[in-house]
Amino acid sequence: MSRSLQTLRRLALPAALAAALLAGLQAARATEAPVSLAAVALGEADYQRVNDALVQHHVVPRYQVMAAAMAALDAAAGRYCAAPGAGTLAALRAADEAAVDAWMGVQHLHFGPVELFMRSYRLYFWPQGRGRIAQATGELLAAADPASLEEQHFRNASTAIQGLPALEVLLYGEGAEETPSAFRCALLTRIACNMKAMAADIVEEWQGGKIDFARTVAEPGPDNPYFESAEEATLAFFQSLYNGLELISDARLKPVAGASIEKAKPALAESRAPGRSLRNVVVNLEALQGLYEGEGGPGLGDLAVRSGADPKLEPLLRKAFRLTVETAKGIEPPLAEAVVDPKRRKAVDKLLTQLVAIKQILRSRFSPATGLPIGFNAMDGD
To answer: Using an 8 Å Cβ cutoff, are 107 and 246 in contact?
Structure first.
């Protein structure tokens, strides 16, 4: 523990800098209080309390929403292929929107059953090389080989053609408005059925089954293959929070915004065709806010309160998340246009600044106050 804290001291930036970066937060005085490392007194019971609450109220309910959304998507795909038309296509696109929302609500959770069998990549292969998914999907459609859609074969196929991004190509790309061929519909329903199965398996493995990952989190110890201590399990949640913020800033926003309007690259915006680039950002942020604040039980922020090391920290971060979500919601979509519009661009830049500031506060204050190291495996773009 002491070695981790020494490392954090070397990495930590002044708390006042984080406050200065957090545009619109107006909490400079709250960041001036120094962190008292001597006050840290968190024990295994403190970490376990948060872990159990997050599994029960954050993780499992969100994966259940995703499983229900994927099942609804699969049903909508079946109805569309049984009777192709404008009405069934609109209904299928709406079901797809709900499924993407559900995925964005759990995308930050980079541990547990979703990481088995490459499920996270198979559900949402992104970021991607430019045009890779469209190319892979186009080649599959051109070959029109029924054997490629056999269940076992498809599960082992390229991740680029198995998930939501490939479905987006089919629903919004070339030929989407035309009457689908038999193979196009077969591919569409295979993708939907494949995602439905993965989502159901994830829920089952969190709640029981062969893995029972909820029990894995609840019973850390020397015989636990994942977590020797409750603190290690909490660290997985904390890294999900920090890395989730980095994904938004470094993958969803910075490549599109560039360093200036002149260097913006609107074509790199995620989910351009359905026009939900900013929607993805908002849903991601709200999920991270729920992870920090808790949803029906204590969240990670509870540890900052219980440590007593930095009394102003928890309300500062709570306010920071609220204002950052408000900024994201206030940007007029689509993102591809906002980054090259001088008036709308200001809000995008403000959002990026706020994201950097939250990360700095987590690194320089929350991490030492709670004894949870950031680690060195995240994208470090600031």
So the answer is: no
